Amino acid sequence: MRVLQLCHKVPFPPSDGGSIAMHQVTSGLLENGYKVKVLALDPSRKNSGQERISEEYYSQTRFESHAVDTRVKPLAAFLNLFTKRSYNLQRFYDRKVEKRLEKILKEETFDIIQLEGLYLTPYIPVIRKNSGASLLYRSHNIEHFIWERMAAACSNPLKKRYLKLLAGRLRKFEMEVIHHVDGLVAISSIDLDFFHKHGFSRPSSVVPAGIPAFNLPDPLPEAEANTVFHLGSMDWRPNQEGVEWFLEKVWPLVVKENPELKFYLAGKRTPQRFYRYESDSVKVAGQVPDALEFILSKKVMVVPLLSGGGMRVKIVEGMAAKKVIVSTVVGAEGIDCRHKENILVGNNAEEMARNILLCFRQPKLAEKIGENAREFALKHYAMQPIIERLMKFYSGFYSE
To answer: Which of 312, 6, 1, 309 minimizes the C-alpha distance to 136?
Structure first.
């Protein structure tokens, strides 16, 4: 089967949730004999990560990326107010990319074209015009949920109103565009249920991101005592919002009760403003060279998301590494985990602080939760069953 995978960003290095989820599909399909071509937008405009792509991958996927300037431009954002279009999506449309895609579709034939996320949907018209392939939309998040939650949490009246406008336009487009594809691949059952409730009745499947096949060191390295950490892409607005809330509302409650604890913040493209939080109890590590090594070196992982959708891949990775995860309710969405069994979940700053302190007051309980978490991750998020589910879904669109 021939698949064209359209990515909203360069999937290398596969270090954040989105790039991991895209790369897992590519690798899984290739390993099972599919012919896959990968075409990616490059919002960084710097071919970020491509120096780490192997020659084998280039050869197998005929990978190519195209720079797209997705930066928010004040004038363009202002002028967009007088239209009915979503500025979030408008930033990802590029005429040169459209022309290149048109050329590819005229020269090659595909059985499946998979759009990795909502930001590829502006290219649906050129795909439909030039290809008879089955068009699948992979929903990484319900995007308008993110903006609605950010609007709800915003205290600035003008900014709040603008975020509501963006969320409303994004919701309208997101609810319409699902009826222009042949099938839907949702990353969580919560997301799929939402689309079903809003009228999507075409073929669909839940295909979550999985965990890479790795064996933990035996014995496990001793984690640094009294440590709490967050690991995630810090150029993603929900992560920025959540970490700021954590540092300002949650962490002071924690260190008041246990001054010996230290919080480590790690993630690529950490904005400079986060370095102002550095203190005896807060260390900003920025991008780390080895994510698994960093995870294993610390005790408790926190996921303080206030907005977002889909599923948090880093939670599943942390679980697979036997870490006890302390998350907000939003952070744990899309993962069928259970409080005090394989994760600790809180609804507010006080509950999150209490859960963190519990890990150090009852280390045996924390250890047991970590063991349960690994068992849960291996059972539900191993890659081969996930890829087999996707291939079975694909088979419904393909005939010799």
So the answer is: 6
pTM of the model: 0.83
CATH homologous superfamily, domain 2-210+382-395: Glycogen Phosphorylase B; (3.40.50.2000)
Q: What is the DSSP string of 260-324?
A: T-EEEEE-TT--GGGGGG-SSSEEEEES-S-HHHHHHHSSEEEE--SS--S--HHHHHHHHTTPE
CATH architecture of 227-380: 3-Layer(aba) Sandwich (3.40)
Ordered strands of the 64-67 beta sheet: 64-67, 35-42, 2-7, 112-116, 134-139, 183-186, 204-206
Whole-angstrom distance, CA of residue 308 vs CA of residue 261 = 28
Q: Mean pLDDT of residues grouped by 10 in the chain (400 residues)?
A: 94 80 92 95 65 78 89 69 75 92 97 95 96 95 83 86 88 90 93 92 93 72 95 90 96 98 95 96 94 94 86 90 96 92 96 98 97 94 92 84
- In single-letter form, the type of residue at position 187 comes to I
